[in-house]
Structures are given as structure tokens and as C-alpha cells.
Write a structure and sequence with these properties.
CATH architecture of the largest domain: 3-Layer(aba) Sandwich
Shape: elongated
Largest sheet: 3 strands, parallel
Structural class: mainly alpha
Number of domains: 2
Radius of gyration: 22 Å
Number of helices: 14
Strand content: 5-15%
Helix content: 40-55%
Bound molecules: tryptophan
Distance between the termini: 41 Å
Length: 334
């Protein structure tokens, strides 16, 4: 690695407790990166308002739950800066300045804008804030002068937009920001209990810190090979949702055995569910134990955040001095 520190930034909207889809899709990767880069991870609570502005009652509790699970999953506040977006007001100042130079059509053509407006019918998303979602996200990233942004493929268009905004800013005012690169790491696809993508909105999730009994109960409801009706029917692991979870949690030997015994109808779906549930419980045990420790002492979360907010603010304030100088609107606090 080069001598110059490389900055990584990523965030998630506060959706409460982390589920296995969030974990394998993002959080596990964040944990790995904290040893390799100077990492900033945050709860995008303002972003939650872009669609859920009418009912804000759950945002702070969801923020706590998310961060508690991040810590349980192995994010270490000694290594990474973990913070809350709304606690670093500089994001808002930068967002405002960027809004002055951002052509409206750039925002209107971001694919997620139209897609979500069409898909989500029960909320009015014809708002200034919703249109500006990718621009606030841009401010989040570049205020830390981040080099890399670990995100899922679904965020690719947002990152491309951010890079365009950076080029425009640097063009007008001089080179302040590096162009942030997306860091697409290969992440396993995590299906939900019903074989659709795991997502809170489908109500098909398994919590990363679910109890042993919850895991047993949920695994029992999992879809399997839809063509296997009786136990004596041979199964097909290739199209079995349950088998996807073996690939995430079981060792090679178990995977091979289940594959063989399922095809030969030696093991039934119910047996297989019992086996999988115990393997999952065992593998998630350390994470669950850390979460219980945090629940006994929630100040672990607040302390980590207080410290993280302060560190994030420091870097954001340094960047804003550079920005205000570049834009030539800087009264240095008079
Ligand atoms: N859009 C991201 C999501 O919904 C959250 C987010 C906000 C983000 N700001 C960001 C992600 C900056 C990466 C970088 O998951």
C-alpha cells in the first residue's frame, strides 16, 4: 500500500437491526476494510428523511440498533470512524454549495430517481430532498475526500454522478476533491426466506443478531426446492433456497454431503432445516454475544458515536476550510 493514507467512506440509511443481507452485502466488507484503509462509516439519517419524512419517529432508535449491530459484527471504533450524518453539520453546508453548481438534468436522469418515484406509490416523492438524494450523498463522500466508496452495484449510478459533480467543482474552483472510486467487492447474493432478495420491505429477513429460537423458527419457514413435495422425491439443491444458506454458513464437507443426500432423497427438507439452523446459530454466536453485551451496556454505542462524530467533524471541518477558500467565501469565523 502507498504511504499516503487512503480514505474509505460508506454509509447506510438507518433501517434498524442489521439482517443477513446487509451483513453479507456491506457490513462484513466494512469490517475487512477497517484494517486496510482509513475508514469512515456512518448512519445516513438525513437520507432517511428523503422518503420517510412524514413519520420520523423511528429514526433515532433505528440508528442505535444499526450501530449496535455494526459493532457486534466487528466494526471497531479504535480502527474506523463510526458516526451519524446529522451530527456533522458540514455535510449540509457542502450540499448547499454543491447545489449551486449542479445542473438539474443531471439529477433528473439518475436512474434511481425515476425508478423509485414510479415504484413507491404510497409517498409523495416529488420533493426537493428526494431529487437531491445523490447530491447529499456526494457531499457525504467528498467531505472526507474519500478515495474509495464500498457500495453495491445499485449505487453505481450515484457514484458516477458524484464523480461528475467533483469534476465540475474542481473545474470552477481548483482541485479540492479526489474523484471517488466505487469499490465493488464480490458479495454473495443473499436470498430471503421466500427466495426473493432479502429485504425489510419484503418481510423475509433473518436478523444478524437473532436469537437461537428465532433462527430455528425462521429457518423452518424457508422455501426449499419447490418441486420437492414428498420426502422421497429427490431434491435439486441448485434451485433450493435453503442450499444458498448452506453455501454462506456451512463448510465444504457439509455442503457436499447435503448436496448428495438431498439429490438421493436421503435427507428431507425438514431434517436439512434443522441442520442448517444449528449451523447458523453456531456461526453467528460470537456476534450475538457481542450484541447482548452491548444491550447490557448501551453506552458502548453512544461512546463510540460521540468519539466518531468528533473525529468525522474534524476532517469535515478541514475540508470545509479548503472549500471555502476555493469558493472564496471564507470569513474565517471573523
Ligand atoms: N445511498 C446509500 C444507501 O441507501 C446510503 C448513503 C448515503 C451512502 N450517503 C452515502 C452510501 C455515501 C455510500 C456513500 O444505502
Amino acid at each position: 500500500m502507498s504511504q499516503v493514507p487512503q480514505y474509505v467512506l460508506s454509509g447506510l440509511r438507518p433501517t434498524g437491526r442489521v439482517h443477513l443481507g446487509n451483513y453479507f452485502g456491506a457490513v462484513r466488507n466494512w469490517v475487512r476494510l477497517q484494517d486496510l484503509f482509513d475508514c469512515y462509516y456512518f448512519v445516513a439519517d438525513w437520507h432517511a428523511l428523503t422518503s420517510d419524512y412524514a413519520d420520523t419517529s423511528k429514526i433515532t432508535q433505528s440508528t442505535f440498533d444499526a450501530v449496535a449491530d455494526w459493532l457486534a459484527a466487528g466494526l471497531n471504533p479504535q480502527k474506523a470512524t463510526i458516526f451519524i450524518q446529522s451530527e456533522v453539520k458540514e455535510h449540509a453546508e457542502l450540499h448547499l454549495l454543491l447545489s449551486m453548481i449542479t445542473p438539474l438534468p443531471w439529477l433528473e436522469r439518475v436512474p434511481t430517481f425515476k425508478d423509485q418515484q414510479e415504484q413507491i406509490e404510497n409517498k409523495d416523492l416529488n420533493t426537493y430532498g428526494f431529487l437531491g438524494y445523490p447530491l447529499l450523498q456526494t457531499a457525504d463522500i467528498i467531505i472526507y475526500r474519500a478515495n474509495f466508496v464500498p457500495v453495491g452495484e445499485d449505487q453505481a449510478s450515484h457514484l458516477e454522478f458524484s464523480r461528475e459533480v467533483v469534476r465540475r467543482f474542481n473545474n470552477f474552483y481548483g482541485d479540492v476533491f479526489p474523484e471517488p472510486q466505487p469499490l465493488f467487492t464480490e458479495t454473495p447474493k443473499v436470498p430471503g426466506l421466500d427466495a426473493r432478495k432479502m429485504s425489510k420491505s419484503y418481510n423475509n429477513t433473518i436478523g444478524l443478531t437473532a436469537s437461537a429460537d428465532e433462527i430455528r423458527e425462521l429457518v423452518m419457514t424457508m422455501f426449499t426446492d419447490p418441486n420437492r413435495i414428498r420426502k422421497k422425491d429427490p431434491g435439486n439443491p441448485d434451485i433450493c433456497n435453503l442450499f444458498q444458506f448452506h453455501k454462506l454458513f456451512s463448510n465444504g464437507e457439509t455442503i457436499a454431503r447435503v448436496d448428495r443426500e438431498c439429490r438421493a432423497a436421503e435427507i428431507g427438507c425438514v431434517d436439512d432445516k434443522k441442520l442448517l439452523a444449528e449451523i447458523m446459530i453456531e456461526s453467528l454466536r460470537p456476534i450475538r454475544a457481542r450484541r447482548e453485551e452491548i444491550d447490557r451496556d448501551p453506552s458502548i454505542v453512544w461512546d463510540a458515536l460521540r468519539d466518531g462524530n468528533r473525529k468525522a467533524r474534524e476532517r469535515a471541518q478541514q475540508t470545509m476550510q479548503l472549500v471555502r477558500d476555493a469558493v472564496k467565501i471564507n470569513y474565517h469565523g471573523l
